[in-house]
Amino acid sequence: MIRAFLIGLSLITLTACETAKGAGRDIQKAGDAIEGAASDIQQKI
How many Cβ atoms are within 10 Å of 20's Cβ, its own excluded? Predict the structure, then answer.
């Protein structure tokens, strides 16, 4: 019983890490897009 609980807890922990890592990548891509748009506007001015 304890072994099954520990395995389940490990899987949840690993899933949470992957989710946070994916969210970080998405936020970084959004920041890159904003930065690119800002650079384009600055060049036009």
Answer: 10
